[in-house]
Amino acid sequence: MRILLVEDESGLREPIAAYLERQGYQVAPAASLEEAREALIEAEPDLVLLDVMLPEGVDAGFEFATELRDAGFTGPILFITARDAVEDRVAGLDLGGDDYLTKPFSMEELAARVRALLRRGGAVRRSVFERGPLKVDFAARKVFWEGREVQLSGREFALLEMLTLQPDRVYGPEEILDRLFPGADSGSKIVHVYVHHLRSKLGDEVVATVPGAGYRLGLS
Ligand code: CA
After folding, report:
1. What is the Cα–Cα distance from 97 to 111, expressed in whole angstroms?
2. What is the whole-number distance in angstroms between the Cα of residue 82 and the centre of ligand 1?
3. How many domains are contained in the chain?
4. How far is the CA of 51 from the centre of ligand 1 (A)?
5. Residue 71 C-alpha to ligand 1 middle, in angstroms?
6. Which residue from 8, 101, 117, 218 could staple onto 76, CB 3.0 to 4.6 Å apart?
């Protein structure tokens, strides 16, 4: 699941992004509307976390929500803002927002709202993936192998999610690095390490190595 996070305060943006990434989401951070518009093209988010007061204006978040809806974005929009006046709340929801979170909030509360919004549907491309012994419940973020639940870390889950999105496609290690571990050295062994984690927690056959090309879901 991809989240576009629009928040101009780096003191909030960075910890929120880090927290959500640890939960297994792919986060595209943006510090302004300008960056958000650019990120939108790349990120194709399932959910948008949107600060209201941005460098472009005190209501810039509301304006961007309208833009998103006009552009056909149907996924959930969760506003985050310091302002908690009732009229702001109503304005945000009128403009196509789905929920409203007032600063300060806990990361646990944020994550709970995100999960609830994604579960509500619309943005959920497919709520459950099943193939062979593997079952992934994306909305609940649970993974089962031969009927037993297996605990995965956020990044393990993100890798598994990526492989199941197009289960017959081969993903090159560089592409996996770029999407899941931005900033890691290219040629890093980190992708191999996470493939190994998935194989040892699930089964060896869950990920197939395609020599010279990369990895794909190993189940058919
Ligand atoms: Ca702000």
Report:
1. 17
2. 8
3. 2
4. 6
5. 23
6. 117
Identify the domain boundary among 122, 148, 165.
122
Cis-peptide, bond into residue 104, ω within 30° of zero: yes
**Inter-residue contact 56 to 34 (CB < 8 Å):** yes
Q: How far is the CA of 208 from the centre of ligand 1 (A)?
A: 44
DSSP string, 143-169: EEETTEEE---HHHHHHHHHHHHSTT-
- The structure's pTM equals 0.57
Long-range contacts of 195-198 (CB under 8 A, 24+ apart): 195/159, 197/153, 197/156, 198/152, 198/156, 198/159, 198/160
84 and 136, same domain (yes or no)? no
Identify the domain boundary among 105, 122, 139. 122
Q: 53 CA to middle of ligand 1, Å? A: 4
Q: Going residue by residue through the chain, which has 220 residues, state the pLDDT in tens, using 9 for 90 and above.
A: 899 999 999 999 999 999 999 998 999 999 999 999 999 887 789 999 999 889 998 889 988 998 888 777 888 999 988 766 666 666 667 677 778 888 889 999 999 999 888 877 544 455 788 899 999 987 778 899 999 999 998 889 889 988 987 788 899 988 888 878 777 776 668 899 999 999 999 999 999 999 999 999 998 7
One domain for residues 116 and 149: no
